């Protein structure tokens, strides 16, 4: 890696299913189609590799049920 | 990050009581991030609320919290700030709480310019009691007490606050959650009475009756109807009719109440003339 700034970031999506009420806000606002609702109507991470760590899901979740932890690799 | 936010929550009280898609949690989340970013000492941070769905927010926060009576949050907060001016005091109120039953406390807190940061959760309705219209329900909109549409004009909280003497006035929506967080931070930094109006969705008590859809659809409605102060400057009154102007709306200068009060105490004790 030539440039430290270009180092890939490890984005870890944290989900707390017990707090999720299945409103679908995070699913609709995610720009990368990372999220979906599962059969029980709870949030599910379906495409974790596509996540860019923008945080839109976390700041718009009314239930504190999803968050991202960004760690520089 | 969620872990930082969670450190200020009373996690044992979750999941919270709010309905799926209710915007109250988005406002609460922005408030926690603002307090975290401001670096407030949790032991010196006080959150006071009234009564209503939105006022339940205080109970979820791991600060010094006070869940008071309907309309009286500012009265309790005024007492706290007078007794302990060094504390950072945030006041959470619903639109009914702040502008109907608590309207008098609201204008007088603004007139005194007491150093409180008031956040009004404006969902255009009395959520907790089942969807009665409030002074913020727009004309024509339906409520349980206005089945054929509201015939009253609504307040503009920002104009009301400014007219009554507040020295910081701002508005954002839950869609504009980062803006909301920054405006709360700026309001907290203002040494005087600060009002931040948060436009938030009540899909159950308001949205359903007015065919605005669920929480997500109401969030997207906010996105479509909000214009920034800059954009609004170039728009005609007709174009602005169904729009919500967001951003910092007003800043003023006025003596702050607890500072004046300390001076009076000093004078009474004969320390100054
Ligand atoms: C003195 C008094 N009057 C009336 C009530 C009933 N009451 C409880 S909450 C509420 C209104 C809630 O509306 P708002 O303040 O907008 O808060 P929201 O529930 O929409 O967040 C009313 C009238 C009360 N609890 N106390
Ligand atoms: S951080 Fe952004 S890209 Fe990743 S899941 Fe959340 S909204 Fe989608
Ligand atoms: S926004 Fe939150 S509560 Fe709604 S579906 Fe996503 S994780 Fe669940
Ligand atoms: S009634 Fe409305 S304001 Fe109250 S929790 Fe439900 S959606 Fe939120
Ligand atoms: Mg309300």
UniProtKB/TrEMBL annotation, chain A:
This protein's record includes keyword Iron-sulfur: yes
Keyword set includes Iron: yes
Keyword tags: 4Fe-4S, Iron, Iron-sulfur, Metal-binding
Positions of the 4Fe-4S ferredoxin-type domain: 11-40, 42-71
GO molecular function term, any single one: metal ion binding
Protein name from the UniProt record: 2-oxoglutarate ferredoxin oxidoreductase subunit delta
Organism from which the protein derives: Desulfofundulus thermosubterraneus DSM 16057
Automatic annotation (TrEMBL), chain B:
Residues covered by the Thiamine pyrophosphate enzyme TPP-binding domain: 51-197
Alphabetical keyword list: Oxidoreductase
GO biological process, one term: cellular respiration
Record-linked SUPFAM superfamilies: Thiamin diphosphate-binding fold (THDP-binding)
UniProt-listed CDD domains: TPP_OGFOR
GO molecular function, one term: oxidoreductase activity, acting on the aldehyde or oxo group of donors, iron-sulfur protein as acceptor
The name this protein goes by in its record: 2-oxoglutarate ferredoxin oxidoreductase subunit beta
Pfam families the record matches: TPP_enzyme_C (PF02775)
Organism: Desulfofundulus thermosubterraneus DSM 16057
Highest classification ranks of the organism: Bacteria, Bacillati, Bacillota, Clostridia, Eubacteriales
